[in-house]
Structure formats: structure tokens, C-alpha cells
Amino acid sequence: MAHDPVDLTARLVQCPSVTPAEAGAIVLLETLLTEAGFTCFRADRGGIANLVARWGDKGHPRTFGFNGHTDVVPVGDEAAWTHPPFGAETVDGWLFGRGSTDMKSGVAAFVSAAVDLVSEAPPDGAILITITGDEEADATDGTTAILDWMETNGEAMSVCLVGEPTSPEMLGDAIKIGRRGSMTVWFTATGVQGHSAYPHRARNPVPALARLIDRLASHQLDTGTEHFDASTLAVTTFDTGNPATNVIPAACSATVNIRFNDAHSSADLVQWIETEAQAVTDASGIAIDLKVKVSGESFLTPPGPLSDLVVQAIEAETGLTPELSTSGGTSDARFIKSHCPVVEFGLVGQSMHQVDERVAVADIPRLKAIYRRVLQEYFG
Predict the structure, then answer these.
(1) Which DSSP category does 201 fall into?
(2) Phi/psi zone of residue 81: left (φ > 0), alpha (ψ -120 to 50 degrees), beta?
(3) Which residues pair with 262 in a beta bridge?
(4) Kind and range of the H or E element at 25?
């Protein structure tokens, strides 16, 4: 009997698994997959629940991997929701709830597809399903913990499909073959506080930091590459915390976020920023300190067998030819890309992280059918 991905989506949405809470979602999947003949392992770390489920022989040279997450972002103002955020209510063809789009429906679709395949037409190969509870936060103990556990225990994927929502307008109009890198830089400029009527007795850090931020924001990082749009640098804050109009502050701070393509590495960008900061310090005498956090490097899975496989399955099920995209934010594919070829494909993501997040009910079994076809074609 075929597994119903809509029912599984609803059951997962009813688990209030706001990072880092497991809230029953991982346990639900572990039980379902165990009953379907998968061998399940827990790769928990740092208070995060992570699941690895394998059907077939360990180390098989044809091991198809699925990756996803059951953790969700906070609901925000619950009073603003039309339907309870963890109610999984279906109204007018939409299933409402936090995580319904990002990405419990995707998890339900690929789990259902895999379970049906191994029960109805067992493949010559293996399927490895990896589910984390730490994608929406810092992602330090999620998919990275799973990959560490796999390396220690001799588990490996030959290829991997991440079920994140990738379709901008309709199911099947885009897949992700890469992602831009992401990094945040915090600046603190330190001077000497003083009275604004006697600026010569102070050392104002504001103009120096403003000069640096303008130099960074005005610089064209690149014009894009073959598979990526141009890199961007966005100024997200500039603060002095100074309520007084007649006081030159002792310090001020600013933050920028950079989304960069495969023309750069984070190390190259940090070096450029440090050079610019030093130039401003040399000219102004204002010390500028930096703190950097790199969320992920840019990566690309070049168009080839894996993306062709997914494209052909989408075309067969929907009639659409998807765009091979690298747009959007980061995902756990940034960790998997060092393990095996990886692409991402899933539902329309327009409502993810929003109040009244919802998924078109009809799209969930269609997504399952695409995943099922991907598996059938992969295993021949």
C-alpha cells in the first residue's frame, strides 16, 4: 500500500520542532522507516537529534542519498496566524503550518517515495536518508554531525538530493545546482569621546567607519560567472548608540553581509576587507577591528548526470524544463558538496518562514512522484 505523503506532512507539521526541539518529528520518521525495513541510526550531537536511515547494503557503489530537516523557525506572532501554526489544517487546497513548505512536505515526499520503492520494486543498490534537526539555526550539530558520523561508521552516499523548496512559481520550474557563499563581517571603530564643540580634543570614529563602509559598498565585486549572478555586499547596520547631539562617540559599529559566487573564496574576501580597513586606519588614525563569520563557501555541482536525472524526472511528471539555479540563501547542500555530488529540488517556497506558511496539497504527491521517478531511473 502506497504511503500518503500528505498525511505524513500533516503529522510532521503537528510536531512543534522549533530548533533545537525534536518534538517527535525525528522519532516519527525513525519509526516509519524502521517498519519499512530501513536500518536506522541516530547521529545526535550537541542536543540535536539527527537520523540516518539506510536500506540496502552498506557501502554499495550505487547509494542514492536524500537529505532534509525537520526543524523549523519560530512562529513569530502566533496571534497573526489565520490557522494554528502547528495545527496542519487543510483549507481550500492548502495545508497550513510552520514547516509545511520548509521543509516537512519535502521530507514526507522523499521518505514516502523511498519506502514505496523498496517495498514494491527493491532496487539493486542502497538508499540513505539523512534528516537533521539543526538546519534553521547555526547548523553546527546537524548535517555536519551526520557527515562526521557517516565517515566514522563507513557510510557514504554516491549522490544526494536535498529536498529544500527550490521552485519560485510552480513545482518543477527550478532546481539548485549550487549556492552562493555567505559571510557576515562586524566592524568596530574606536576613537576618543569628546564635546562636539571641541572636535580637535576628540577623535571621531564615525567618519572613518563611514568611509570604510562606503568604500566596501561602492566596490563591484564581480559581474557574475557562468552559473552565478554577481556577488553582493549589503550594509545591514551602522550604529553609534549615541543619543546625545553634542557628544562625539568613542566608538561606532557596522555590519555587512556578503553573498558571493564562485569567483571568490571567503579568505580572499576577508583579505580584501582587511586591506581596505587598514588603509582607512592609516589615513585616519582610527583603529577598526573586524569579526567574521563564514556561513558557507560558494559551490557548484556542474551540470551533468545528477542534474540531468532530476531534470528528466521533472519533465516527465510536470512537462516543465526547470532552470538550473544557484540563487537564494544557504542550505545544508553546502556541507554535502564535499562528500558527493549534490543538487536540490523541492516545492514552491513562496510562504516559507512567513506567517500562515502553507503548501499546496496537490503538489505534495506530485513531488513524491518526481522523487520516485528519480530513484527508478537512478537504479535503472
Answers:
(1) G
(2) beta
(3) none
(4) helix 25-35
Classify the C-alpha dihedral 60-64-70-73 as positive or negative: positive
CA distance 151 to 321: 36
8 A C-beta contact, residue 356 and residue 94: no
Give the C-alpha separation, 49 to 146, whole Å: 10
What are the boundaries of each domain within the chain? Answer: 5-179+298-379, 181-296
The architecture of the domain spanning 181-296 is 2-Layer Sandwich (3.30)
Identify which of 195, 207, 232 has the alpha carbon closest to the alpha carbon of residue 288.
Answer: 207
> How crowded is residue 63: how many other Cβ atoms within 10 Å of its Cβ?
22
> Pick from 168, 209, 163, 195: which is nearest to 65 by CA?
163
| pLDDT tens digit at each of 380 positions of the chain | 678 999 999 999 999 999 999 999 999 999 999 999 999 999 999 999 999 999 999 999 999 999 999 999 999 999 999 999 999 999 999 999 999 999 999 999 999 999 999 999 999 999 999 999 999 998 999 999 999 999 999 999 999 999 999 999 999 999 999 999 999 999 999 999 999 999 999 999 999 999 999 999 999 999 999 999 999 999 999 999 999 999 999 999 999 999 999 999 999 999 999 999 999 999 999 999 999 999 999 999 999 999 999 999 999 999 999 999 999 888 999 999 999 999 999 999 999 999 999 999 999 999 999 999 999 999 99
pTM for the predicted model, two decimal places: 0.91
What DSSP string runs through 332-373?
THHHHTTTS-EEE--SB-TTTTSTT-EEETTHHHHHHHHHHH
Grid coordinates of 101: 513548505
Write out the three cell numbers for 34: 524502521
Return the beta strands (E) in 29-177 as ranges: 39-42, 50-55, 63-69, 90-91, 94-96, 126-132, 159-162, 174-176
Task: Record the cell numbers describing residue 309, joined without a space.
Answer: 536525472
> What kind of fold does domain 5-179+298-379 have according to CATH?
Aminopeptidase (3.40.630)
Please tell me the number of Cα atoms within 13 Å of 244 on its side-chain side: 10
Task: Pull the grid cell for residue 66.
Answer: 536524500
Q: Which 8-state DSSP code applies to residue 58?
A: T
Catalytic residues: 71, 135
Cell of 274: 582587511
